[in-house]
Structures are given as structure tokens and as C-alpha cells.
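FAQ: What does the model actually see?

It sees only this:
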Amino acid sequence: MKGNLLILGIGNYLMGDEGVGVHFAKMMAQEHWPAGVDIVDGGTAGFKLMEEMEDHPFVILVDATLDGRPAGTIRLIEPHFASDFPSAMSTHEIGLKDLMEGLMLLDRMPKVYLFVVSIEMLQPLSIELSPPVNAALPLLKRQVESLMDRLGVATAEVFD
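And it is asked to produce this:
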């Protein structure tokens, strides 16, 4: 087993706001985290993430969703089944749901916390986040750190 907690950002970096999970993982990876916290940019890897996820008892997923809410809206979902994921999980919906079903079938499902960030649309061939989605990143970070505190996982270490 690697660490106690995996923070996994997923999405397509080349599709604008759809890549919010990837942008979030890269932002988080720039900080110093205590042992036991692993941060991974999962991109659109789908089943390739199964081994990474099953190596951690707790997984915090960050992904975009086309759910009709205002862009930058953050929601925390604690899915227990693949059907608990939002119906519009962007361009990699099938891969993520299949990944969860595979972990469940193998009885290797970690405790998953899914933070979804609402987006307005896909922006093909854009690596930039829209202003409302980009503005949501600091709040998302605080919400993830709050969840980590509730889970008893130390947050980023400060080095002077």
C-alpha cells in the first residue's frame, strides 16, 4: 500500500474547464504534503487508475460535471455505487463509472469522496479554465483540506 489518502484529479487538460480536476491536482502537488498523502493527475486514464485507487483506503476525486448549475459550483458526493455518480460526468463518464464498478466487483473499492465542479461547456483545444471555474479552485482546496481534517489526515506542511 502506498499512502492513506489519494487525491486524484481527473479530466481532459485540452478541453478547458473539463480539465479542472487535472488543474487541481497540479496545484495541490506544488505543496508539501505529509507522508501518506499521494496526489495524482489521472487525466482521462479510466481503468488504468484502478491499481492507484485500490492502493489507498481513502480517495478524494475531483472532476468536472455538466449538471446545469452555475460554473464553479462545488459539490461533494460520497458515492457507494457507480450509479451514484452524476449522470453527466463530462467526456470520460463511462470510463469513471466502469472503473468504480470494476473496483466494486473485485471488492477493492476504497472510500471515495467525489468533488464535482460544475462547468458550463466543453472548450475543445483550450488549456485555460474559465474565470468562474478558476476562481473556485481556492474554495475547492479549502473544502478538500476540511475533509482531510475530518478524516484525520494531516494537511499541507509549512516549511520556513
